[in-house]
Each structure stands twice: as structure tokens, then as C-alpha cells.
Amino acid sequence: MPLTSGARINTNVAAMNALQSLNAINRDLGMHQERLATGKRINSAADDPSGYVISKKMEGRIRSMNSALDNVGDAQSTYGVAEGAYQKIADLLVQIKEKQTRFINGAFGADEKDAIATEIKALASEIDDIVSTTKFNGVSLLDGQYSESFQVGEGSSETFSVTFSASVSSASLLGTAAGSITSANVSGLTVDTGLGTVNSSIGTIGASLNRLSAKEANLNTAITNTEAAKSRIFDADIAKEQIKAAKLQILQQTSTSMLAQANTSPQVFLSLFR
Q: Does the N-terminal or the C-terminal CB of the chain have fewer CB atoms within 10 Å?
């Protein structure tokens, strides 16, 4: 910063120095006030170029993981719909098993057995109705064709496959289609095999839901930690910014006062002309 004896008044160097200092203080004060107003330490790339780039990369990771978290929720919902249907089918099979056992009764005549066969036929038809109406976003889940991948992590390769490969129907579970069930073939219905198939599918769903719960917890932890790392770079420390702003406000006042004094100091040389 240039110094002057003050005797040269054509250029008021002292006032220029005071103005330069005041402008610098105003710039710094404006920066800290902006940080206090926005809560962000970095409001433009010029504030911290490398910090801006790093924080934006972290923001991309956070958004990607949040989307992956949504995907995990959708996969869980898909399993939930399928599990509910399997459980209802299992309940129907248990009822069919009960009716089948009751059917084999020497005290019953043809009419009684026909009535039981009709009940079993209705229960088997309900199984087919459940299969046809069990869908997620319009896609059938229990027709043996469902197999979809869900991205459950930040990277595109971090996927989870949701598959229902077992074809579920009255014919596959009971060995006879609902429309063909009569008193003549009730005793031959493969109810135990069907229950085994359904219960196995329910068990697989349970294991998969446990895996998805673990992935959900891991994603939540990763999101929280990445948010914390981004905050340390990108967000303003309000306490520190307030301290710096208060200091600069005082310096602003003193610099303004010094500028006023520097502007009037050349007047002392008027006494030389008296």
C-alpha cells in the first residue's frame, strides 16, 4: 500500500488507501452476509472451486442413493403384494385339505360327496381368481413369468432381482384344474404338494425381504454419512460467519471514519496561506 507525507493534495493517497480498505471490507462482509442468508458456505464456484465440484459430486451420489432407496421400497411392495396373495392361497389350500379329508367318509352318500366336491371346486376357482388379479403396476406376479431387476445401490451394477418363477394355479397346485374337479377325483388332489410349493415361495419372499431390509438400512446410513460430508464442505458454520460478520461491521465503521478523516486532512495545509 503506497504511503504519502500528505503534503501533496492533488492526489489524496491516504483517502485512496482508506477507500481500498473499505471496499475490501465491504466485499468480505457481503460474502459473510450472503452465507448467513443462504446457510451455504459455497454460493458460487468462485467461493471454493474444488469444494463446489466435490460437493456437487456428493449431491449426485445422495440423489442416486435416494432413488435406490425408493427402488428398494418398490421391490418390498412387490414382494408384499405377492406374499399376501400366496398367504391367501395357502389358506384356501388348507380349507381344501380339510374338505378332502372330510370327503373320505363312509357315512356319506353321493349327494354329500358331490356337495363337498362343489365346495372344493369353488375354493380352487378362487385360487385362479387370486392368481389372475395379483398384479403390481398392472403386471401379473404369479403367472410364472415375473422377473425384474431393481437398482438398489449407487452403481448401475448394484441390482436386486425379484422373480416369481413358480406358476401358481389350481391345476399346478392340485393336479387338476378347478373346472375339472368332481367327486370322482377329489381324493386324488395333490393338496400337500401344492401347500409345499406355496409355503416354499412364502419362505423365499421372507428371506428376500430380510435382504432388502438390510440394503435399506445400509442405504440410509450411507445417505446420512454422505450428507454429513457434503455439509462440512458446502454448508456455512453460522456461528463462525456471525463472528466474522460482526468483526467486519466494526471494521466497516472504522474504515468509513478513516476515509472521512483522510478526505479532510489536506485542509490543514490551508493554514500555510494565511
A: C
